[in-house]
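User: Okay, second chain of the day. Same drill as before: sequence in, structure tokens out.
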Amino acid sequence: MRIYVSSLHGKNGSQRVRELLSYGYREMYGESMPEMYKTEKGKPYFPSRPDVCFSLSHTDTHVMCVIADSPVGCDIQNFRQVSERIVQRTCTEKELEVFGFFQLWTLKESWIKLNGSLDREIKTIEFAGTLESVIPPKPAVRARLFQLDGCIAAVCTSGNSLPCSVIEVENI
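Assistant: Same drill. Structure tokens below.
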């Protein structure tokens, strides 16, 4: 698994994240990225390469792409003000004792992307543990948080391991 992050460099987030995916795919597999499709629920995939799993995310300032050989979900968010109402609707008190809102939000979004859809209330997707050792809702899943420049990112996977760092790419 590789986790790639890049600044937007004034580009559209959707365009830049596709460029990052193409870059990462070429780096990992030594060939051009195949044609990408989306499931009916919007999850992107490569029909010609079912062995390659990936997840994409972008913010106002950064893009993120994770490429793996097992299902994966990622999310990246800029820190900003959010209403107390949103916090209360998405996080439990127990979670908020350990994690900040955006740490939880990125974990929950990456969980949803890993699973391909939101099948229940977001507040019921509970994370535990510590910032360094996140415990996801299911034991077969691994999760990790990454602090970046003005952002927080999270990755969830059903694979056996998670990298401890991201690969920052500026020149694509």
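The chain has four helices and eleven strands.

User: Thanks, on to the next one.
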